[in-house]
Amino acid sequence: MKIGFIGVGEMAQAIIKGLINANQFDPSDIYVHSTHQTTYEPFAKETGVVAVDSNIEVAKQTDIVVLAVIPNAAVVVLNEIKSQLADKTLISIIGSLSVTEIENVIGTSIPILRALPNINVEGNVGMTALADNDALIGDKKAVAVKTFEVLGEVSWQQESKFAIFSAIAGSGPAYVDFFIDALSRAGVKYGLTKKEATEIAAMTLQGSSHMVLNSKNQTPMDFVDAVCSPGGSTVAGLLAMEEAGFMNSVIKGIDATVNR
Ligand SMILES: NC(=O)C1=CN([C@@H]2O[C@H](COP(=O)(O)OP(=O)(O)OC[C@H]3O[C@@H](n4cnc5c(N)ncnc54)[C@H](O)[C@@H]3O)[C@@H](O)[C@H]2O)C=CC1
Ligand SMILES: O=C(O)[C@@H]1CCC=N1
């Protein structure tokens, strides 16, 4: 089974690294091409994947074709490769393109999986939304879905929910990492080194995520209450954050992401 990536940018590279980590595909069974040879050739050398000369060659040589280009190039590339897609599975990670839009460009009904992964797939701790068409069945479906299951968690979603999923989970790592950086910068302000402050902040986020995910009936706000000792330092900090508009700034950020 061979898998090919058209577009070898940040997201394709993260997926490929996660697939190799998980031994899901041998690097020699992963084919890549993009417009930027200066990016994909060093990446192919570093990881052992096979760099080929054109998008069409990726589609010809592989069983599963992953469309991972910038959104503006997606329709052009689909038109370019559509004659090579019979008997293949097409996986699209294009944020803004629905399964029906893809089918309309291709013109025939081939198995299609739409995936919205996040960058954390590189460490096999990703969160990926999935949707498919009726032609994706049997072994082809099992293999396509497994491709993302080995990269972390998957969540089947109606396509109408992809925009909000993308804002929280797809863009989310940028927002969470921004928060980690804000916490660690505050640590530096009070004398910690950036390295130790970053580790302390990231570990705290990991611990809180673990507690929320493993709690049977406690909400995040229950944990907030548990930390806020009466008359203590946490409630003072929380109220100062809210005075500066913490919750509102997060919601406004998600609004802007969804509306883009
Ligand atoms: N970066 C992320 O966290 C996520 C990205 N996505 C989606 O993944 C796709 C790629 O995003 P990134 O990797 O962040 O972008 P990127 O800019 O890092 O990579 C885009 C790649 O597409 C290639 N490309 C552009 N036009 C092409 C063409 N005509 N033929 C072949 N290759 C072409 C570029 O050379 C580059 O390798 C986007 O559609 C985005 O919506 C989805 C979820 C998360
Ligand atoms: O910023 C973007 O458009 C893509 C979609 C989700 C994450 N990155």
Automatic annotation (TrEMBL):
Keyword terms, alphabetized: Amino-acid biosynthesis, Cytoplasm, NADP, Oxidoreductase, Proline biosynthesis
Listed EC numbers: 1.5.1.2
GO biological-process terms attached to the record: L-proline biosynthetic process
Domain Pyrroline-5-carboxylate reductase catalytic N-terminal: 2-93
Domain of life: Bacteria
Catalytic activities: L-proline + NAD(+) = (S)-1-pyrroline-5-carboxylate + NADH + 2 H(+); L-proline + NADP(+) = (S)-1-pyrroline-5-carboxylate + NADPH + 2 H(+)
Location (main, coarse): cytoplasm
An example Gene Ontology CC term for this record: cytoplasm
Domain Pyrroline-5-carboxylate reductase dimerisation: 159-260
GO MF term set: pyrroline-5-carboxylate reductase activity
Family affiliation: Belongs to the pyrroline-5-carboxylate reductase family.
Function: Catalyzes the reduction of 1-pyrroline-5-carboxylate (PCA) to L-proline.
Identification of the protein by name: Pyrroline-5-carboxylate reductase
Organism encoding this protein: Paucilactobacillus suebicus DSM 5007 = KCTC 3549
Taxonomic path: Bacteria, Bacillati, Bacillota, Bacilli, Lactobacillales
